[in-house]
């Protein structure tokens, strides 16, 4: 819960969470607000959903506003950052969370489906990270606020390492995010900008509803999760808070998998 205690780890920081209006993004937005950050809840289409997340944060005593922008469109991203500077002067944390799935067997995958997923999941992360990094460098260090000059957290997936038939556009976007994150981390470390990823496993959100439609589908999904439960947006929110906080000041260029062991090749647990 948000409170005014001095132990809040993101106090006096401005955080942008793209796609913060639902699922994991909403969980991250609420967790960061509870740690004292002022959160910008970005949304693409649903102003109502974004307003509901903002209202929840305010009800808990936190600070938040909603800003609309399609992260795959450069002019909209630039306009969002102008609005952030106008309203809050600067930014300290970017959570690059927006992402979509548009599945198709490989032989039937249209260029449109391929391009749409790459545009939102990969180009969207590039555009927002570039604008955030430009703002961090423009503003310079604020050691009284945070040891790092800026923090970027990319929402990746277990599919940055696990291939995924029927989802080549999505898996490719997440593999791309891994190299985007690492290359940015290498390039921006001298400016004291930390860049990391979170690789969620199966988290109960709208994006994967179809994989949990029936009890049988849910049972099948659980066979891939050694820890025996589907994750919750709050599981990811807590990791994001830690990565953004000074507790993680020596952590850059890495992916933290929060997946109940999905990346442990559970098929080999029983002698393979
Ligand atoms: P979700 O569908 O609830 O959230 C996706 C968010 O992205 C929504 O808020 C949506 O409005 C936003 N978005 C979509 N297109 C956008 C655009 N063009 N511009 C701005 N925002 C846009 O699903 P989620 O599960 O919360 O997904 C969040 C992130 O987590 C995604 O990057 C997804 O790939 C990743 N992820 C999810 C899971 C999971 O199991 N749920 C697992 C691994 C990774």
Automatic annotation (TrEMBL):
Gene3D superfamilies: NAD(P)-binding Rossmann-like Domain (3.40.50.720). It comes from the Bacteria. Pfam families: adh_short_C2 (PF13561). PROSITE patterns: ADH_SHORT. Belongs to the short-chain dehydrogenases/reductases (SDR) family. This is SDR family oxidoreductase. It comes from Hymenobacter sublimis.
């Amino acid at each position: 819960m948000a409170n005014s205690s001095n132990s809040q780890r993101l106090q006096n920081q401005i955080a942008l969470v793209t796609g913060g209006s639902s699922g994991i993004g909403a969980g991250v937005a609420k967790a960061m607000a509870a740690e004292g950050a002022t959160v910008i809840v970005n949304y693409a289409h649903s102003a109502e959903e974004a307003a509901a997340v903002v209202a929840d944060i305010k009800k808990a005593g936190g600070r938040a506003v909603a800003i609309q922008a399609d992260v795959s469109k450069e002019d909209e991203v630039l306009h969002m950052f102008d609005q952030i500077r106008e309203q809050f002067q600067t930014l300290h944390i970017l959570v690059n969370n927006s992402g979509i799935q548009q599945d198709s067997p490989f032989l039937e995958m249209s260029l449109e489906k391929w391009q749409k997923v790459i545009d939102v999941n990969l180009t969207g992360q590039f555009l927002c990270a570039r604008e955030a990094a430009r703002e961090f460098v423009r503003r310079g260090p604020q050691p009284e606020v945070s040891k790092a000059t800026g923090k970027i957290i990319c929402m990746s997936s277990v599919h940055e390492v696990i291939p995924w038939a029927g989802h080549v556009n999505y898996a490719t976007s997440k593999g791309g995010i891994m190299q985007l994150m690492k290359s940015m981390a290498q390039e921006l470390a001298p400016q004291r900008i930390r860049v990391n990823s979170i690789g969620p496993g199966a988290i109960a959100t709208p994006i994967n509803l179809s994989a949990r439609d029936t009890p049988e589908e849910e049972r099948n999904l659980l066979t891939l999760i050694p820890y025996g439960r589907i994750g919750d947006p709050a599981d990811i929110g807590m990791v994001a808070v830690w990565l953004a906080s000074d507790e993680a000041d020596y952590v850059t260029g890495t992916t933290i998998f929060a997946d109940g062991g999905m990346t442990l090749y559970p098929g080999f647990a029983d002698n393979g």
